[in-house]
Amino acid sequence: MPDPDAPAVAACQFEPTVGDVNANVEQIDQLLGSLSDSIELAVFPELCVTGYDVDVAEVHAAKIPGRLTDRLIEVADFHGTTLVVGLPERDGNALYNDLVCVTGDGVAATYRKQYLWGDEADRFATGSGPVTVETTVGTVGFVLCYDLNFPEVTLAYGRAECDLLAVSAAWRESYRSDWRLLCRARGFDGTCYVVGANHAGDQRGRVHAGGSLVVGPEGDILVETGDGKTTVAESFDRGRIATARERNPVLETRRARET
């Protein structure tokens, strides 16, 4: 039986206002305010701080830590929740599509997208590899949208025995079935939770699929947005991970073969 006192995780989706950072951070704040106090980790969509537009992302990109993350740290501190949020990073002359993990104490981790989709490759530099961070719900790894298509990305997280993958996306409606399939596959492959946050709505001609979800470590969808829901939450149960890894011992088998 799940532990009733277990922490919970949430996937949050919304339709950002392209180019209005203040409005988008306010949306993040409001969504967090709608969640229960048991939520310890909340995941938000790709580039949601600026809206998904490469030109706009380039204009608003900032150093990390910096003006974009300072606002998010304040929000995380107020709600007492660890946030995983998509935003653009400026590092010298390089522009990156990032996920940042922030708490009330500051930036805990920064992940740069490894596989760039379409015209992203014309502007963004490529991230160099996986990033993990220790949180109150365990070891978390990061995945950004198109990264989800590449099992080798999440294989690295499997080797690190991640408990949860935070997946942030701007996944289009025309690929909705792929989104659900790949989130489930990555949970099953890694015998870990997947918290997938996707954009909703229409941004400059891109119709997004929504469908934010939490996948369990056996690859089953535990909760999913629908019927107007903008957030979904699920308890984080380490017992479920242990059961999944006993039933599907891929991590143990891989480790044995590689030693």
Strand and helix layout:
Layout: E1 8-12, H1 21-33, E2 39-43, H2 54-60, H3 67-79, E3 82-91, E4 94-103, E5 106-112, H4 120-123, E6 132-135, E7 138-144, H5 151-159, E8 164-169, H6 176-190, E9 193-198, E10 202-203, E11 206-207, E12 213-215, E13 221-224, E14 231-235, H7 238-247, H8 250-258
Parallel strand pairs: 1-2, 2-3, 7-8, 8-9
Antiparallel strand pairs: 1-14, 3-4, 4-5, 6-7, 9-12, 10-11, 12-13
Helix pairs in contact: 1-3
InterPro entries: C-N_Hydrolase, C-N_Hydrolase_sf
Protein name: Carbon-nitrogen hydrolase family protein
Keywords: Hydrolase
Observed structural traits:
Nitrilase/N-carbamoyl-D-aminoacid amidohydrolase
Describe the structure.
A 6-stranded mixed beta sheet has the order 5-4-3-2-1-14. It has a single domain (8-258), classed as Nitrilase/N-carbamoyl-D-aminoacid amidohydrolase (4-Layer Sandwich). It has helices spanning 21-33, 54-60, 67-79, 120-123, 151-159, 176-190, 238-247, 250-258, and strands at residues 8-12, 39-43, 82-91, 94-103, 106-112, 132-135, 138-144, 164-169, 193-198, 202-203, 206-207, 213-215, 221-224, 231-235. It is globular, with a radius of gyration of 17 Å. By secondary structure, it is α/β, with parallel strands linked by helices. It is built from 8 helices and 14 strands.
Q: What spatial order of strands do you see in the largest sheet? A: 5-4-3-2-1-14
- Which structural class do you get from the secondary structure elements? alpha/beta
CATH topology: Nitrilase/N-carbamoyl-D-aminoacid amidohydrolase
Shape: globular
The fraction of residues in strands falls at 25-35%
Radius of gyration: 17 Å
The number of distinct structural domains comes to 1
Spans with pLDDT under 50 lasting ≥5 residues? Answer: none
- Architecture per CATH nomenclature, i.e. the level-2 architecture: 4-Layer Sandwich
The CATH superfamily turns out to be Carbon-nitrogen hydrolase
User: Quick one: biggest sheet?
Assistant: 6 strands, mixed
SSE pattern: EHEHHEEEHEEHEHEEEEEEHH
- Average of the residue pLDDT scores: 95
Our count of helices gives: 8
CATH class: Alpha Beta
Q: How far is the N terminus from the C terminus?
A: 35 Å
Domain CN hydrolase: 7-238
GO molecular function, one term: hydrolase activity
Keywords: Hydrolase
Protein name: Carbon-nitrogen hydrolase family protein
